[in-house]
Design goal:
Layout: E1 8-12, H1 18-24, E2 29-34, H2 38-48, E3 69-72, H3 88-91, H4 96-107, E4 111-117, H5 127-138, E5 141-143, E6 148-150, E7 159-160, E8 163-170, H6 211-226, E9 236-237, H7 252-267, H8 269-278, E10 291-295, E11 307-311, E12 314-318, E13 323-324, E14 334-335, E15 340-341, H9 344-350, H10 363-372, H11 376-388
Parallel strand pairs: 1-2, 1-3, 3-4, 7-13, 10-12
Antiparallel strand pairs: 4-8, 5-8, 6-8, 9-10, 11-12, 11-14, 14-15
Helix pairs in contact: 1-11
Length: 389
Amino acid sequence: MPITDNFKFIDLFSGIGGFHQAMASFGGHCVLASDIDKEAIKVYKENYGIDSGINVRAIKDKDVPDHDVLCAGFPCQAFSKAGKREGFMDQTRGTLFFEVARILKAKHPKYIMLENVRNLVSHDGGNTYKVICQTLHDLGYRLTKEPLILSPYQFGVPQVRERIYIPGFYDPKHVDEPIDISFEHLMSKNENSINSILDPNETDPFYAISQHTEDVLTAWDEFYHGIDIKTVGFPVWSSYFKTKTIKSDFPEWKKDFIRKNQELYIRNKPFIDGWLAKWNSLKGFTATERKFEWQCGETVPSIWDAVIQVRPSGVRVKKPDVFQALVALVQTPIIGKYKRRLTVREAARLQSFPDSFVPDSNRQQAYKQFGNSVNVKVLEAVFEKLIRY
């Protein structure tokens, strides 16, 4: 039976409600939400009027409302490899996926929508994903034959965020027949632009980069324009420019990078010496800021036309087509042309939350919560395929 407006769903490990946003866009009504993060619970309550502050382990089967769709972005844990004779449900016992399976066994909702990190497929040598799929089959759910791995940029949202989606529906008589959910016209990274989610009129000084950060970026922009190559295929480590020897106990990949830095310095010695003198040999820079990674090829003319991330590996400069996954960021990315960082509202847009969504008033919490969320637009695309199958 196809799903209808006003269908009911439950939202396990609900966070700030990425699944809720997606299901509500199809007319769904949330009858249960569950999370243990106090700050996320507050945000969920403010936006949806639902108290999600209940631990899924504490929910008794008899207290779970009837529902049509179970949604869960469950944490990934290793399962037992032993005791197959005990059944797959027993192998998952003690993990949070077991709680999902327990509720499915008790209620048999028509549809399931699960999401997890891409590494779920290879986690624990593939055992984790195998046990999840077999458990769902045992419970009567048909699934896709192959893992469904998708990223927001493929749907026009400029973020690289590969995740595995596990859609399924209850059909115990045909459980061995896989469902076909595929997308014919997925976009490439190059077809995206960060401009699609940026606010060109943002002036809040909170997001502006410091004078020190601007100096660091200006220095490296001058460096890039002064050296004799424009496609820099290795990390630039300024501390190794003048190194004569390479430690023998370094791994080969590191020795190779150091040699390339030495060669770069020798070829560009007059310019680099002058550059170092101008910037006081980078003495005011942190260890991270003395390293530089240009990952734009020849497509971007300047740092100020790129997206910049200051990571432990250095000042990383990337094309302005997509952002890297929010959850992986050590620091909020810098928008070169605006000399500011990504705003909380823009982070929300990267996860396809509407501008009407009220984020956590603590901006660092808000960044974290969006980084931990599921992407609404991808969920919507998968769910639409599932219910139309």
